[in-house]
Recover the amino acids of this structure.
């Protein structure tokens, strides 16, 4: 078994025989979060990052070029669920970074809150991402990346509302688009184009779009940057 650095900082590849897996180096020794495999090495524990359980993991497996979430990043994460992807983001941003993790289902957020007890860079927020003013007082300091995975019909609008509330020129925005949450009959290509049009008309500049099939069927990841004019 050997461990290699990925081109994206704080992301790794664990190579066992012919099998290559994505991984992050765990901020908390000995901890698994969602039943993922833990690989022990001399310099710490590496958590295998399942691309089938995480759209960000799938985007990296599909060779996304721009990965704005980096060591030290300050991330506003919308649609945190129980913290599967948030836990890997927590490993990536490390102790110098922070994740404001918003999830509106109190039941789902229970595990997220538990996770935040051992990972001090996660601030769980049990709120509806459609109402950023309800949690703006909890988000202190600037945000580098607004990441969204809410799987709702109005996901582009929700992202724009949060970008308007928390970001400034140059802030990154990442949107995991679930086509079938938006429209169950149209062509997925048209759905992605419509979502991107909503984002660019709202003042975001498209940097990259990547389809996540077959790892995540009918999903895409879109990376944008806040332009000069955000409406
Ligand atoms: C696809 S799951 C997220 C999975 C998670 N991002 C991961 O990779 O581990 C979508 C989550 O968004 C939450 N959600 C949906 N609409 C929301 C909203 N308006 N505000 C906050 N959370 C929302 C759902 O309760 C659900 O837990």
């Amino acid at each position: 078994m050997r461990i290699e650095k990925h081109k994206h900082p704080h992301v790794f590849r664990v190579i066992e025989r012919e099998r290559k897996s994505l991984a992050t180096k765990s901020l908390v020794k000995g901890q698994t979060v969602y039943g993922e495999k833990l690989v022990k090495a001399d310099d710490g524990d590496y958590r295998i990052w399942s691309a089938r359980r995480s759209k960000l993991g799938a985007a990296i497996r599909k060779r996304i070029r721009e990965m704005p979430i980096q060591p030290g990043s300050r991330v506003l994460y919308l649609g945190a669920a129980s913290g599967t992807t948030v836990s890997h983001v927590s490993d990536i941003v490390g102790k110098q970074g922070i994740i404001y993790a918003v999830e509106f289902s109190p039941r789902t957020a229970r595990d997220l809150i538990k996770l935040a007890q051992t990972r001090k860079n996660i601030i769980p927020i049990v709120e509806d991402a459609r109402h950023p003013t309800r949690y703006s007082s909890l988000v202190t300091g600037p945000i580098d990346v607004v990441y969204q995975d809410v799987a709702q019909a109005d996901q582009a609008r929700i992202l724009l509302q949060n970008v308007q509330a928390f970001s400034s020129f140059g802030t990154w925005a990442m949107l995991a688009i679930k086509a079938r949450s938006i429209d169950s009959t149209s062509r997925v290509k048209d759905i992605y184009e419509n979502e991107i049009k909503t984002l660019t008309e709202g003042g975001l500049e498209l940097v990259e779009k990547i389809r996540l099939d077959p790892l995540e069927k009918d999903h895409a990841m879109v990376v944008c940057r806040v332009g000069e004019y955000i409406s």
The CA atoms of residues 34 and 84 lie 6 Å apart. The first helix runs from residue 55 to 61.
